[in-house]
């Protein structure tokens, strides 16, 4: 690669890392350097809930193939042995290979500016290229940090009870990280489960029009006081720390921890009430055993935050059946949805 091209590539990545909606947690994806994005994705006027955050490679945004394009009636076929993904709608089809910029469509060879990639079992494809292959337009809404196919959403959806003229702020804390793995069972590290659920929750809350802050977006070590300092600095409404539990191999279920100080209240919501709401939604959505709402006055992130704060213990990694559930995308997505519902309900009560 010639020097000017190298300099241009570096410049593009630096710019992307400074644009709102793009996170500077770069890594190699199927042989190509990319950065994850917090951008919302919408199709035909509806913001989608995706199982993976979008990824930016060489200035192009990549999205989960099946989840994004099934809304348009596109069928996605994945051939893992060859790394080939084929997408079909009616008499139109495109065939791509993970890690390659060469595509085949309509009997012709086409070249993409970014290749399909594989992220933790999810096939991600270049959004604009695939959309335009099937005759769809793609746009970017800078104000709402949203890429969209077809019709642009008239507004970012919000659940009833949240006021459109108010800015709601929530800090999402993925427990542990970096040198602090947390519990480890069957080769699964708690820090990774926590981060995956946190990212899913971040996407869900952004889709509700809520301003979010994440204490970490990749596998790094973050100090306990750094986590609470972020929430206090941003004057967040709520602080949600996501963890998973360990104990006796026969013990399973969800629990929620809170600080008993009555001063940790905002509006009409106390920390205890927030914990109750979180616990209720976890048990209802996951069908998990109710391990209770528990006071923990000595835990740093609960003690040093100035707003209602909880530690949500999703499940017990030491229980083989519960760990098997936690290892699935669907269960972690349900956990994120339970926390989203709890946050919405709590904000409604806070500002009632």
Low-pLDDT ranges: 5-25
> What class, by secondary structure content?
alpha+beta
Number of strands: 25
Question: What spatial form do the alpha-carbon principal axes imply?
Answer: globular
Which CATH architecture of the largest domain is right? Answer: 3-Layer(aba) Sandwich
How helical, in percent, are the residues? 25-40%
What is the distance, rounded to the nearest whole angstrom, between the alpha carbons of the first and last residues? 59 Å
CATH class of the largest domain: Alpha Beta
**How many distinct domains?**
2
Order of strands in the sheet with most strands: 1-2-5-6-13-12
Question: What is the count of DSSP helices, taking H or I runs of 4+ residues?
Answer: 9
Q: Strand share of the residues?
A: 25-35%
Largest sheet, in brief, is: 6 strands, antiparallel
The averaged pLDDT comes out at 90
CATH superfamily of the largest domain: Zn-dependent exopeptidases
Q: Radius of gyration, Cα only, in angstroms?
A: 21 Å
CATH topology of the largest domain: Aminopeptidase
